[in-house]
Amino acid sequence: MNFFARALVGAALATAAYIVPASATEITFYYPIAVGGPITKIFDGYVAAFEKQNPDITVKPVYTGSYQDSIVKAMTAARAGNAPDAAVLLSTDMFTLIDAGMIEPIDKLAASSDDKDWLKAFYPAFMANSQADGHTWGVPFQRSTIVQYYNKEAFKKAGLDPEKAPATWDELVADGKKLTVKDGSGNVKQWGVEIPSSGFPYWLFQALVIQNGADLANQNGTKVNFNGPKVVEAAQFLYDLSNKYDVMPKGIIDWGTTPKDFFQGKTAIMWTTTGNLTNVRKNAPFAFGVAPMPKKVQGGSPTGGGNIYIFKNKDKAKEDAALKLAKFLTSKDMAADWSIQTGYVATRPDSWETDKMKAYVKDFPPAAVARDQLKEAKAELSTHDNQRVTKALDDALQAILASNKPVKPALDRAEQEATRILRQYQN
Amino acid sequence: MTVGSRFRWNMHVQGWLMVFPAVVLLAAFTHIPAVATFIDSFYSTPHGTKPSHYIGVAQYSNMIADPIFWQALRNNLLYALITVPASIALALIMAIWVNGKIGGRAFLRLAFFTPTILPMIAAANIWLFFYTPDYGLLDQIAHLLGFRGVNWLGDTTTALPSVMAVTIWKESGFFMIFYLAALQQVPPDLYEAARMENAGAWQVFARITWPLLMPTTLFVAVNALINAFRIVDQVIAMTGGEPNNTTTLLLFYIYQVAFSFWDSGYAAALSSVLLAVLAIVALGQFFLLDRRVHYR
Predict the structure, then answer these.
(1) Residue B141: which domain range?
(2) CATH number, domain at B163?
(3) What pLDDT is stored for residue A70 in this prediction?
(4) Is residue B24 part of a domain?
(5) What is the Cα gyration radius of chain B?
(6) Residue A409 pLDDT > 90, yes or no?
């Protein structure tokens, strides 16, 4: 190609590049699906409503699979210079995204006083997973906590008050013993309780740790506490439920089949996310109750679920459009609608005051249990190099539960491993 | 230049032109990435503002100190050592069975081959149902017979064997097809001669069938072994390496390091080791076993 031809092509490309941004701002928005229901349809509806309010912005919503698939897709796209403008990703992915230098602090974009009020509108328990190093990196969107679901009929049969779920660890053990039913040959027909331990056992375990008055990591995600005396005590209790009190199945309890175990009467109590609320409401063939977590020295649960992140972009217009979208999706009315349609906890107190939400709670009181529990909720375990650090704890927990490893040494090893990984982030 | 040499030269050019597309594809998608991976394994993982830099063999010394790597390697060797001979033996038995003149032969062949047609994810899900504690198929049968249920995938002693069983079930039908084809190539006059000599069934198998099937066995064994080190979808679908890494195989661990931990440098080092293992497996089989294979 001679110089002239090259110059011509260059000019043509430059013109093309110049023409595109002159039209309306187009942004891409990645979102995962982690609960049942017609989520894509709901999202398309939200996007259409947003575009109607903001005719100068076009949103391209992209369904990106599970949470794990979504972070892989978002990060690979960002590395290839084609990052989404906004994405719903796990709140615990925050440090991973900060360390990769991919996301913009939202407080930097949210400059107007209206924007600042918006960032103050959310429950503090949810914001705990959004803030680090003095910045806000994500806004709570589809958030959850762990609650107890219990089978009221099984409670009646066992001679327990069906309106009263276990409120302390001791009651959990005592009720669990009454609820565990064996047949003639010693096979268990119904367990007292199931606390899932596959996939991400750290999350459910963290609830026990919080109840025991401790926590697993610091706010800046640079230090963990995997082997403190209270953590060890919590792990011992989890192990004892299966191996000493005999009220929970031994070995690893699968997260995915726990709701089915509950529906089939294989367990009388299950611990799982509030995100399963709609699922249980539809599928439980018996009267069920939803109760907050039991207490040891206090109640409480870690939060969970996804935040909206805004990815860095040289084009300021796109970042602003992404901010507008995030603001729209987390407004008090949208948060209420999203909560009703999915079972996630509405993320801000004022959305519970909307007429729509009040009517929903009146019709279905269990929906408010998760909200009331937020007072005692803590940030989900999240650190730098998060997946590796949590895997160290997951491995230790599974070693304890599935291969009967002694509790303290297993947790000591997890602490060592996590500390080794986190050393480079402590300064 | 004489006419002959020009013709030969033309032929060379033409030959190269013909293989050119294949060479380009192979190089672009296999060889260059493999070499690049090997080179990357000597660099650190880029971290936000910190670009990657040369760190020598640090990734490899990390690997030696990494207990999960050793467990993955051990799991994988055990996995190969059990699934390969088991699926070959099963394939051979099934092939000999459906090669005989029995009623419903076509149906039987189809039945044995069905697992191969299923996508791995579908097969894994079927087996997940079999393995579900208490109301899964296996435990329901166990309860009927008066045994206690087993938490197949949730127990460290049964998890890896349970995953192996799925592989054997899926692979043996596929290998059966190769054996079936090979069995039909065995000249019938050899069997006639054996019958005239009053050879027993075992003698016929050991002296005629097995030696003549040796090339097929080699082919199947190489494939099975390579597959054993390449398996990943099944682990992702069934266990995610749980519990406590007892079902973590090498390729799954590489996936985890690369796409959960985002440690591309370490993943490159692990990939290089996997490549080396596969190369050794292939070379070893071709050079060592080749001598004992009877080709006609």
Answers:
(1) 68-294
(2) 1.10.3720.10
(3) 92
(4) no
(5) 24
(6) yes
Close Cβ partners of B106 (under 8 Å, ≥ 6 residues apart): none
In a domain, B8, yes or no: no
Q: Which of A305, A347, A306, A316 is nearest to A85 (CA)?
A: A316
3-class secondary structure per residue, B80-143: HHHHHHHHHHHHHHHHHHHHCCCCCHHHHHHHHHHHHHCCHHHHHHHHHHHHCCCCCHHHHHHH
**C-alpha distance from A251 to closest chain B C-alpha (Å):** 6
Closest-CA residue of A relative to B46 is: A100
Q: Do B49 and A398 touch (CB under 8 A)?
A: no
Name the pairing type of β-strands A139-151 and A267-273.
antiparallel
The reply to whether A392 touches chain B by the CB within 8 Å rule is no
Q: How far is A423 from chain B, CA to nearest CA, in Å? A: 15
Kindly indicate whether the ipTM for this predicted assembly is greater than 0.85, answering yes or no. Answer: no
> Residue A140 phi/psi, 5° resolution?
-60, 130
- Please tell me the pTM assigned to this model: 0.84
Structure tokens at B70: 């050793």
Q: In sequence order, what are the residues at sequence separation of 6 or more whose Cβ sits closer than 8 angstroms to the Cβ of residue A26?
A: A57, A58, A59, A60
What's the domain count of chain B?
1
C-alpha distances out from residue A21 to A24, A35, A54, Å? 7, 36, 17
Ramachandran angles phi, psi of A27, nearest 5° = -125, 150
Model confidence over B62-114: pLDDT tens digits? 899 889 999 999 999 999 999 999 999 999 999 988 888 788 888 888 888 88
